[in-house]
Amino acid sequence: MSTEPTSIKGSVTPPTSIDSENSGVGASSQTKGTTGKRKATPQRFDQETCRKGLAQMIVIDELPFKFVESEGFKKFMFVACSRFHIPSRTTMIRDVYQLYLDERVKIKQLLRSSCSRVCLTTDTWTSLQRVNYLCITAHFIDNDWKLNKKILNFCPISSHKGEYIGMLFTVTVDNANSNDVAIGYLRKKFNPRGGLVQNGKYLRMRCMAHIVNLIVVEGLKEMNKSVERVRGAVRYVRQSPARLQKFKECVVVEKIECKKTLCLDVCTRWNSTYLMLDTAQNFERAFERFEEQDTNFRAELERGEGWPSLDDWNNVINLRDFLEHFYEFTLRISGTSYVTSNNFLDELSEIDILLRDAQLNSNVAFNVMAIKMKEKYDKYWGGIDKINLLMFVACVLDPRQKLKYLEFVLSEMSSSEKACEMMQKLKESLYELFDEYKPPLHSTCSQSSVPTHVSLGESQQKMKRRIQALYKKRELEICGEDKTSELDKYLAEANEGFVEDFDILLWWKVNSPRFPTLSKMARDLLAIPVSTVASESSLTPKIVQALVCTQDWIRKSSSQEDIKKIEERIQELDKIENDIFICFILILIFNQK
Question: At which of 408, 433, 458 does a domain end?
Fold first, then answer.
């Protein structure tokens, strides 16, 4: 398929049934006059500019390509701008792909202009069409100390096996065994180029959200009976509009003010199980009243996992409160519009405290669940040798934490001997990394050398810098060179206070002149995402790549903190869908009469 823009061969003729009195002759903009009223300022019509804008709308709003051939859109465009020749869906596909190529050039230029390293997250999965996909996302802090996230590629791969993945990306963050092969390949490939820190010693960064998922899933196995019984009750009510309507009447009678709608979970996604329990526990009394009105309710559940007893509801409420911490935790660490690596230790200690407290629970089933989860926790985070040390270094480079705070938190999480051992390894890694970032000795010497004469054509500014260099040299001769490194000076300074609105990137931007080497480390380490977030789609490979990447590049960044709001909106839409279905049934009954 050609990627160059083509002439408008696939355009369609505007409909003639619309009153031409309102049809536009071109684009116009609104401006305010001196009287405060808006006046239309006509602009020159440009077919290619309009087509590009249409392509951007298709990508940003995730519209199907056939949208341009819909009757409603044709009528609207005829009224808005009758001169615009609407392209066909085939032409639109070519325009979108050309937009992708143009935006890709801009992304390459942006990465070339950035002085920091790039951290990558990856994810692979198989679509409904059985096509294996790989998504590669770059995370970096630009020259203005702004955190950036850009999808570099979204492409099909022949297999999920490590040897195939290694040919396509530079680093991975999830916990699949196949990634060991990929990491080995990458070290071998990139070490000769000198592009890896510490020869690739810290190349692999395990996805924090994936580990949390493994921990929670392990725990849910122990509380499965109570969850299954509540799931069965929710499934029964949602199986027909009539049952759902009767259940809503029970909610009204019981005066339950919760506005949420019952939702059924996906068993393989624990966060959806949490959302199901979070909603269902509000309607315990409504379920009891529903049983009185529906004689088949209890009988049907008894044939399955059983009727949810009072103990089951108590387990569900306790489990819901417990899982809420992990749900909120996952939202926080999945953010891409803010720094997450500096909060690694705080998040880790929160999970550790939660699991230790849960093991003291008087409920036997809850106690066993917490023990199983702690075992899974220890498998991945039980020792410093199991955690990428760059995560701890990123915490040190948070001016609110530094080494003292880390030492305190580690001593709270483990024995004093183990904490001392971990701190020793951390300090060694910290200074090794700092030495690698320090500029070569010959470059500093060349900067401090002073010319013995001045050419006649030298500017006044150069003369000023020469005098300053002479003064610096004289100071070194009298007082001697300051042996205290940037890192030691930074660690010796008092910590910043723990305030919620603290902007760590702004702090390093302001203090980078005082800590030029450390600020380079901070730009690289604070860009590391602790989790990888997947992007999913099911179109053809070439257009999927163009759509996913281009949408990420031209759409404004949105915070991952909005995920919870999105989940709530999905529940609202689910409620509307149920209401529409009930209306549809009523219309059918009415028509039959």
Answer: 433
| Cα–Cα distance measured from residue 260 to residue 531, given in angstroms and rounded to the nearest whole number | 30
Instruction: Round to whole Å and give the CA distance between 181 and 197.
Output: 19
Handedness of CA 63, 557, 549, 53 (dihedral sign): positive
| 26 pLDDT higher than 60 | no
Residues 6+ apart with CB under 8 A from 292: none
Residues 416 and 542 in one domain: no
Does residue 571 surpass a pLDDT of 90?
A: no
In 145-240, which residue ranges form alpha helices assigned H by DSSP? 162-165, 178-190, 208-220, 224-238
Strand partners, 136: 122, 153
- Give the pair of three-digit tokens for residue 426: 């951390």
Helix (H, G, I), strand (E, B) or coil at 498: coil
Going by C-beta distance under 8 Å and a sequence separation of 6 or more, which residues neighbour residue 122? 134, 135, 136, 137, 165, 169, 171, 172, 173, 174, 532
First-to-last CA distance in the chain?
Answer: 55
- Is a pLDDT exceeding 60 seen at residue 81? yes
Residue 137 phi/psi, 5° resolution?
Answer: -125, 135
426 and 323 within one domain: yes
User: In which domain, by residue range, is 552 found?
Assistant: 117-207+535-571
Q: Do the domain assignments include residue 345?
A: yes
Residue written as tokens 């963050």?
A: 173
More confident residue, 339 or 550: 339
* Shared domain check, 263 and 189: no
Q: Facing residues of 148 across strands?
A: 140
Q: What would the 3-class secondary structure string for 362-384 be?
A: CCHHHHHHHHHHHHHHHHHHCCH
Tell me if 340 sits within 8 A of 565, measured CB to CB.
no
State mean pLDDT over 199-214.
82
Closest CA to 402 of 393, 411, 390: 393
Residue 150 has φ and ψ, to the nearest 5°, of: -135, 130
C-beta neighbour count of 116 within 10 angstroms: 20
Chain-centroid distance, C-alpha 497: 27
For the chain, the maximum distance between any two Cα atoms, rounded to a whole number of angstroms, is: 107
Joined together, the tokens standing for residue 373 give 């989860």
Q: Which of 367, 400, 433 is the last residue of a domain?
A: 433
Q: What is the pTM of this model?
A: 0.67
Q: Residue 527 in contact with residue 116, Cβ under 8 Å?
A: yes
- Distance CA(63)–CA(58), nearest Å, equals 5
Integer Cα distance of 264 and 588 in angstroms: 27
Query: Which residue type sits at 477?
Result: E
For residue 317, pLDDT over 80 is answered with: yes
Strand partners, 218: none
Pairing verdict, β 132-141 and 147-157: antiparallel
Mean pLDDT of the chain: 76
